[in-house]
Amino acid sequence: MAAIEFQDVAKVYPDGTRAVDSLDLQIREDEFMVFVGPSGCGKTTALRMVAGLEEISEGTITIGGRVVNEVQSKDRDVAMVFQNYALYPHMTVAQNLAFGLKLRKIDKSEVRRRVAAAATTLGLEDYLERKPSALSGGQRQRVAMGRAIVREPHAYLMDEPLSNLDAQLRVQMRAEIQRLQRELGVTTIYVTHDQTEAMTMGDRIAVMRGGTLQQVDAPEQVYRRPLNRFVAGFIGSPAMNMVNARLTRVDGDLTVSFGEHSLVIDDAVLAVRPALRAHEGGEVVLGIRPEDLEDAAFTAAAPGRTLTIVCTLREALGSEVLVHFVVEDESSAFIARVNQLTAARVGEPLQLVVDTTRLHFFEPASGLAIYGDVT
């Protein structure tokens, strides 16, 4: 097993496009690190540079303390799992699993041992003589995983391996990959655009945008304490509601106002965001997560902590209801995630209670979160 380190790494294409820019990141030995971000953010390019499938334009990448910038892909001792499985259709499952080992001239008895062990781990014992065309999508993905496992590499590199599976299989395979990674204890980099995968799978997640690293931390920390508007809006589903607002003092209380609404800012918020006081009388961007809004019929409401809105769309999801509304104009569309028994109806008013201890605030110009240590 090995730690992986990016030191000021960049990938610049001939036309000048910087697909990855100044990436500094340390991935600990045995860690499950998830790279997440929208399409084109540089996450797959970063992964491919580790694998040796993309040249490094600037900086250095080390695997297990060894600089690998000039090391060929086959000599880096990493195993990659691709989105499209990349199985040989004319080979059986057993042959697919063994192929890479035979190329490396591993002893036949050792090949049999590793293939048998991987098949047992992945529940493929009954499929070893089948060809990929006779397997389901989930079984093919297990074979692709098995081909990586038999390598016994220093690190696994996974490029959106579940994107071709249906929703139910994705949930099942997420759990399977997590179990395998913990059992095997191998350093893993996992690339996805799906923030649900990132939140549920990673020991830490690295959020990327436009080739730059925006934030890296444990999933809970990234969710609770995003460093900027992009991270706040990208992590969480539905996305965080945001609106331009103004901080004022009303009857001794610091208050945030937007449209026809105003909310009292709790002392608990000021305790973790002391820099907010410096913005009194000025503009901020207010963020409220949908799950921090609830139908007033199901929770107590304190003064200065409610919104009276008109429902514009009601989405019943079974266990919960998403209530859509606007707070100022059509550009300020909000979503509230409320109790499944809500009486909310389109075109009718509804009172929502806001958990004002969990408000988020951002600088309008820079988009940076307002805390005390990060401004």
Question: What can you tell me about this protein's structure?
Answer:
By secondary structure, this protein is α+β, with helices and mostly antiparallel strands. The protein folds into 2 domains: 4-233, Rossmann fold, CATH 3.40.50; 238-362, Nucleic acid-binding proteins (OB fold (Dihydrolipoamide Acetyltransferase, E2P)). The protein has 9 helices and 21 strands. The strands form 5 sheets. A 6-stranded mixed β-sheet has the order 6-7-8-3-9-10, with helices on both faces. A 5-stranded antiparallel β-sheet has the order 13-12-11-14-21. Helix 2 packs parallel to helix 4 (137-149). The longest helix is centred in the middle third of the chain and has 18 residues, at 167-184. It is elongated. The mean pLDDT is 93.
Quick take:
The chain is of the alpha+beta class and 375 residues long. 24% of the residues lie in helices and 32% in strands.
Strand content: 25-35%
- What would you call the structural class? alpha+beta
Main CATH class of the largest domain: Alpha Beta
| Largest β sheet strand count, sense and barrel closure | 6 strands, mixed
Main-sheet strand order equals 6-7-8-3-9-10
Q: Low-confidence segments, ≥5 residues, pLDDT <50?
A: none
